């Protein structure tokens, strides 16, 4: 007579029990609905938090620009009477070096100098133009990219971020032919430019930045379509002005 041997008990590992539990959950319709509901809720919360972060980033950037404009002297430059209060020393011109406003900026603003003030009435923009384009500088305001001083011969290019909150160049895509922008230089001279064209280009189409139809132009540059395109808004100063 054969004697049947009992198999020795072998406790299941943690991972085996977890896999069996998950399998039961996903084969049960009610449990599956609960899992999908929880996952969709988590994804919605993550998307909401991301959107809030992007919006808040723009709010902070706008405040940074306002702080720089306030301490730079450009906020009230048109009313500048030639007197200084012992703090603001007017730069000689837009090409003034980064020390032109030395001592006015706190450490958080990195000591950038301001080469112009940009005002666009149609989209409610009033921003300082910083003297150089860097990743850090773009978090504070729009930046000088290349070209002449305000009102000069050639194509002055200014670049800025397209913030979700509408800060900086966030509403640049709303501009149309005939809209105007004013650039105020460090001497209080105001130059009015008029939009004649808007264009979407690919990020590698650097040649488009050199295109000109007039002698004195201004190009505003920002990202569009999740940075897959660049938006160019082209302005000019009419001959004789």
Structure, described:
The chain has a single domain, classed as Sortase (Sortase, Chain: A, Beta Barrel). It is built from two helices and eight strands. It has helices spanning 14-27, 29-72; strands spanning 114-120, 125-130, 142-146, 154-159, 180-184, 190-201, 216-224, 229-236. The protein is elongated.
Task: Produce a short descriptive summary.
The chain contains two helices and eight strands, in the order ααββββββββ. It is α+β, with helices and mostly antiparallel strands and 241 residues long.
Averaging pLDDT over every residue, what do you get? 74
How many domains is the backbone divided into?
A: 1
User: What's the SSE pattern?
Assistant: HHEEEEEEEE
The shape is elongated
The CATH fourth-level homologous superfamily: Sortase
The level of helicity is: 10-25%
Provide key terms for this protein.
single chain; 241 residues; alpha+beta; Sortase, Chain: A; 8-stranded mixed β-barrel; 2 helices; 8 strands; 24% strand
How are the secondary structure elements laid out?
Elements: H1 14-27, H2 29-72, E1 114-120, E2 125-130, E3 142-146, E4 154-159, E5 180-184, E6 190-201, E7 216-224, E8 229-236
Parallel strand pairs: 2-3, 4-7
Antiparallel strand pairs: 1-2, 1-5, 3-4, 5-6, 6-8, 7-8
